[in-house]
């Protein structure tokens, strides 16, 4: 069954989400990737005010291509999430409730999500053209000088994601790969961690 | 003596920048379709279907397949009997990249300094340029748009000769398994074996730039490519790392002689978009 959600997200809704759930997001979400995260956390560390109120909000890890004439946005698929792992804790403390990206999170972030009751969604990596059709408007709301890394507010409609980490510590990748591994490896597989 | 004008090079690179980003190659799309037939996991099948839908949409509307339109990697094979006229080869390539990325609404993803001053150069230059001087009058440019999701998951190891075939295989398998969902599987695996520390990474990249599905001329390595493809696909990573049988679309190996005490191995991963284009004069 597909769940439909609209930010801001509350605890009750987050409690219902489990890894593997298909979710359609409609409403406003924010974009941020490496450089914007660095600025967010620098702002928090010096006691400043973030350019957006993160309480209950969703951040989409994306740096879209420029919009062609007549388009609201260019290709806009997810970027690799682990690069944002080291910035997660202060943002979760600021009230962030969900992130959208691709790839796994470090185990430290999986724990942080549990602790702060937040979820991690994945969108299909490399499907940037297809995903762009779910974005109805886009405007820069902070850090315009960062170009493709500026923070944008996106209005999305039935934006398709899958719950990859829930508030219970579940991890979709660990579960999925276990089912299909048909080879015994003479070494331990570590999750690359940036925290 | 073959003459190549810098204007021709600039134009070729400008077009390649856009074309590789909008239009999937037939053989790669064919590999998606074959993968869809072989994949058993439900999530894997769904993702492969989305990939097919995505590349069809991208081609139809001339939109980038992926928003990470990559750093531009340019490999020039230039014959000894070729003369460049009208200016500098490197400038012509960078002008082509700059124009292609601007005119094609592609993302500019290059910062001018890696550590202290990470400011976007604004036109995706400079390209990463490699030039080989070859016999004859060949002039060939291979263009690769390389996203960083897969590039960041690539690895290099200075193995010792005792590690042998098993050591090489294990390093490839470990690299792909640990990368998991991050490089946007199903991936293409480029493996460099031999040379020195500096050479082996380039061998792995060259393997990615080779024709899709082509095999190494030495039957030992051709066999190893196919064995590795089979073993990688037993890792269970699957499309987008959600579990499944299709983890890689192709494995290609490039080799070079090496020191008596060395066995360098590099694994350069590429995402499923696998954007490579060739221009020849």
Instruction: Indicate the mean pLDDT of chain B.
Output: 98
- What is the helical fraction of chain B, as a range of percent? 25-40%
- Please identify which CATH superfamily of chain A we are dealing with: Fe-S hydro-lyase, tartrate dehydratase beta-type, catalytic domain
Strand order of the largest sheet of chain B: 4-2-5-10
The biggest sheet of chain A, with number of strands, parallel, antiparallel or mixed sense and barrel status, is: 5 strands, mixed, barrel
Order of helices and strands of chain B: EHHHEEHEEHEHEHHEEE
Quote the beta fraction of chain A. 15-25%
Sequence-ordered SSE layout with sheet pairings:
The complex is a heterodimer of chains A (195) and B (281).
Chain A lengths: L1 E4 L5 H6 L5 E10 L2 H12 L12 E3 L27 H6 L4 E4 L5 H10 L2 E4 L5 H5 L2 E8 L8 E15 L6 H9 L15
Parallel strand pairs in A: 1-2, 2-3, 3-4, 4-5
Antiparallel strand pairs in A: 2-7, 5-7, 6-7
Chain B lengths: L1 E4 H17 L3 H13 L3 H20 L9 E9 L2 E4 L3 H15 L24 E7 L4 E8 L1 H4 L3 E5 L4 H16 L7 E9 L1 H13 L9 H14 L15 E11 L4 E8 L4 E6 L1
Parallel strand pairs in B: 1-3, 2-4, 7-8
Antiparallel strand pairs in B: 2-5, 5-10, 6-9, 7-9
Helix pairs in contact in B: 1-4, 2-3
Characterise the protein shown here.
The complex is a heterodimer of chains A (195) and B (281). Chain A has 195 residues and is of the alpha/beta class. In chain A, 25% of the residues lie in helices and 25% in strands. Chain A has a single domain (2-180), classed as fumarase. Chain A has six helices and seven strands, in the order βαβαβαβαβαββα. In chain A, helix 1 links the parallel strand 1 and strand 2 (22-31). Chain A is globular and about 50 Å long. The N and C termini of chain A lie far apart (34 Å). By secondary structure, chain B is an alpha/beta fold. Chain B folds into two domains: 2-21 and 65-146, Dihydrodipicolinate Reductase, domain 2 (2-Layer Sandwich); 149-274, no CATH class. Chain B contains eight helices and ten strands. Classes of the chains: A alpha/beta (195), B alpha/beta (281). Chains A and B meet through helix 5 and helix 6 of A and helix 3 and helix 6 of B.
